[in-house]
Write a sequence for this structure.
């Protein structure tokens, strides 16, 4: 149980274009989903927390106009990287929390490369 | 501010050589401490949740323990497939949005 999927698993895009990453909870409803960024050999950095039907809460230093998060249903959250630049290249991972429990279950991650 | 420090940063073990990973934490009111395993290029895999000092959880060759200041992940008779980065995270009772604070991780390499 508690399976989270992400799509795509990897994506290459050109500088200036936008990329959308999907995060789905497959066998449970997730009232809260989280988006992280991870650089090589570093730990996870929380970017934002999203609750179904409401605006995402962004961590300090994360540009909300650049990283658009939508949590339109209890099983789907999307992260759109707008006007991507090479410095946005990273490993993006989402997680979801089962209602009534505290642990987070993570997706497999999306490798974004901006050329 | 909540803080999590993991040690050592890296650990090389021979197959069968038991060892322990440390996670020291500072948090105002612990709701839970979480252990995850992360393989290269993949998302973290949930292992354990510990809620109060004295609590222990086990899964195969892994055993997690918790005190008021730190947690240990004991790996008994490890196998090469136990090679991974092990992440520790804490959640404070007052954590906005139930967010987790992660440590830097311990990279474990088990050689056959």
């Amino acid at each position: 149980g508690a399976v989270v999927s992400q799509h795509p698993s990897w994506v290459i895009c050109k500088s200036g274009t936008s990329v959308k990453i999907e995060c789905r909870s497959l066998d449970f409803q997730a009232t809260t989903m989280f988006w992280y960024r991870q650089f090589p050999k570093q730990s996870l950095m929380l970017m934002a927390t999203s609750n179904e039907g409401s605006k995402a809460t962004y961590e300090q230093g994360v540009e909300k106009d650049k990283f658009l998060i939508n949590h339109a249903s209890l099983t789907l959250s999307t992260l759109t990287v707008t006007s991507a630049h090479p410095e946005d290249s990273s490993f993006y991972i989402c997680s979801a929390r089962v209602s009534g429990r505290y642990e987070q279950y993570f997706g497999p991650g999306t490798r974004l490369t901006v050329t | 501010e909540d803080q999590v420090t993991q040690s050592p940063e890296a650990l090389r073990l021979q197959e069968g050589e038991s060892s322990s990973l440390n996670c020291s934490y500072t948090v105002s009111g612990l709701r839970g401490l979480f252990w995850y395993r992360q393989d290269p290029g993949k998302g973290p895999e949930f292992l354990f949740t510990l809620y109060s000092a004295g609590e222990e959880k086990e899964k195969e060759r892994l055993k997690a323990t918790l005190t008021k200041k730190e947690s240990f992940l004991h790996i008994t008779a490890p196998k090469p497939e136990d090679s991974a980065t092990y992440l520790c995270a804490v959640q404070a009772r007052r954590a906005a949005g139930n967010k987790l604070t992660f440590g830097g991780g311990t990279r474990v390499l088990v050689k056959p």
Q: What stands out?
A: The two ends of chain A are 37 Å apart (CA to CA). Chain A has a mean pLDDT of 94. Residues 33 and 96 of chain A are 4 Å apart (CA to CA).
